[in-house]
Design brief:
The chain is 36% helix and 24% strand. By secondary structure, the protein is α+β, with helices and mostly antiparallel strands.
C-alpha cells in the first residue's frame, strides 16, 4: 500500500506531501483543486503511465522544467481476507518496502548554457535505481474507478484494449514485455507497408516483423482471454448477470498473407490484438436471453456493468499477485445512484482505498478515516 507521496512541480502542486491511511483516505476539495491530480500521481507510480494526460509533459507544472513524483510503498500489514471475512497476514507474497519515483521533463532542460540540453522525458526509479517501464510497473498495484470508466461499455475499442493492458500489465511481467514488443513491431511493420506501397520495396522485408507480431500477439491474446474468463466467472450484481464476449482478431502467418494486398493498399496492419475488442452482455436472472449492453442496456445497467468489471479486476489482481490492490475512487460516487453507491461502499473497507469528493458532507459517512482537505 502507499504510505505517503511527495509531489514536486506536478500539475498544480509546487511542493506537497500527502500521507495516506492504510485503510481509507478521503480527499475533499472544490473542483479544480487538484483531487484527481493526486490519484493520477498514485496511478503513475503504479503503472508508469497517466490515465489522464494525452502528452506526459502536461503533468509538469507550467512554470517548471522538471516534475518529481515520489512515493513510499509499504507492506500490506492488514493482510487479506479469509473465507470467514476475517483479516489474515499475507506472508506468502511478502515484498520489502520500497521507494518509487517518476521524473518528468519537457525533453529539454536549462543547465546554464546558451541553449537547453536534451534530456529524457521520463525516468522511473525503484529505491533510487533507474528502471525500465517493464521492471517499474507492477511494484505497486492499484485499481482505478473514475467517471471516464463509465464509457468502457459504449466508447471506442481502444479504451477497452487499454483497460485490458493495464490490468494484465500489473500482474504479468511477460505481458508487459509482449505488449511493448508488439507495439514497437507494429509501428515498424506499418512503416514498411507504407514504403512497399509508395516505394516498391519487396514484401520479403516483412518476414521478421511478421514473426515478431505473431509470437507476441499469441501471448497477448491468451492472457486477455484468461482475464475475460475470470471476469465471466464473477458473481452477478443485483440479479443481473454480466459477461464479456471476446471479439478476438487472431494473428498468424496465414491471416497476414490472407490480407496482404489490403494491408499494402492501406499501409497498415489489419489483423492482430491491436484490433481486439470486448463486448458487454447482460442477462436478467428471470430470462435467458442476452442483450448487448452498449445498444440495449439502460444507463443504469451500463454503470452496473462497469462496476461489475471493476470488482472482477480487484479480485483478479489479488488472485494473480497475492496482493490486494489499492482502490482509487475518483469522485465516482456522485455518478452512481443509491444502490450502486451502497455496493461500492461495501468494498471500501476490504483494502486500502483513496476516495476523492467535492462534497464535504460525504465524510460524515465514515467513522474512522484520514481526511485530506484541498
Amino acid at each position: 500500500m502507499i504510505q505517503k507521496i511527495r509531489l514536486t512541480n506536478f500539475r498544480n502542486f509546487k511542493s506537497k506531501i500527502f500521507d495516506f491511511s492504510p485503510k481509507t483516505t478521503v480527499i475533499v476539495g472544490p473542483n479544480a483543486s487538484g483531487k484527481t491530480n493526486i490519484l493520477e500521481a498514485i496511478f503513475l507510480l503504479s503503472t508508469g503511465k497517466s490515465f489522464h494526460a494525452q502528452i506526459e509533459e502536461e503533468m509538469v507544472n507550467y512554470s517548471a522544467e522538471i516534475a518529481r513524483i515520489s512515493g513510499r510503498i509499504t507492506n500490506n500489514e492488514l493482510g487479506i481476507m479469509d473465507e470467514k471475512g476475517e483479516r489474515i497476514l499475507n506472508t506468502k507474497y511478502k515484498i520489502p518496502n520500497s521507494n518509487l519515483e517518476v521524473v518528468l521533463t519537457r525533453g529539454l532542460i536549462d543547465v546554464g548554457n546558451s541553449r537547453p540540453e536534451p534530456v529524457a522525458r521520463k525516468k522511473m526509479l525503484v529505491n533510487g535505481v533507474s528502471r525500465r517501464l517493464i521492471d517499474f510497473a507492477g511494484n505497486f498495484k492499484v485499481v482505478l474507478f473514475a467517471p471516464h470508466d463509465l464509457g468502457l461499455v459504449t466508447e471506442s475499442p481502444s479504451l477497452r484494449r487499454k483497460f485490458l493492458d493495464n490490468v494484465l500489465s500489473q500482474v504479468d511481467r511477460e505481458y508487459r514485455r509482449a505488449i511493448l514488443s508488439y507495439e514497437k513491431g507494429l509501428r515498424q511493420r506499418n512503416k514498411l507497408l507504407f514504403r512497399i506501397r509508395d516505394e516498391g520495396l519487396s514484401r520479403s522485408q516483412l518476414l521478421f516483423w511478421n514473426q515478431l507480431l505473431v509470437k507476441n500477439g499469441d501471448y497477448i491474446s491468451v492472457k486477455r482471454q484468461e482475464f475475460i474468463d475470470f471476469a465471466n466467472a464473477t458473481e452477478a450484481l443485483n440479479d443481473q448477470l454480466f459477461n464479456l464476449e471476446y471479439d478476438k482478431s487472431a494473428i498468424s502467418e496465414g491471416r497476414l498473407e490472407q490480407y496482404a494486398e489490403e494491408e499494402v493498399a492501406a499501409a497498415t496492419t489489419l489483423v492482430g490484438p491491436h484490433r481486439d475488442d470486448i463486448q458487454f452482455k447482460i442477462q436478467n436472472s428471470k430470462f435467458k436471453i442476452q442483450r448487448d449492453l452498449s445498444r440495449y442496456g439502460s444507463r443504469g445497467e451500463q454503470r452496473m456493468g462497469v462496476l461489475w468489471l471493476k470488482l472482477a479486476e480487484l479480485a483478479f489482481i489479488e488472485e494473480k499477485s497475492g496482493e490486494r490492490p489499492t482502490l482509487l475512487l475518483d469522485d465516482i460516487l456522485s455518478e452512481l445512484d443509491h444502490s450502486h453507491r451502497e455496493i461500492v461502499m461495501g468494498i471500501v473497507g476490504n483494502q486500502q482505498t483513496v476516495i476523492t469528493t467535492a462534497d464535504p458532507h460525504f465524510i460524515e459517512k465514515f467513522k474512522r478515516v484520514e481526511i485530506i482537505k484541498l
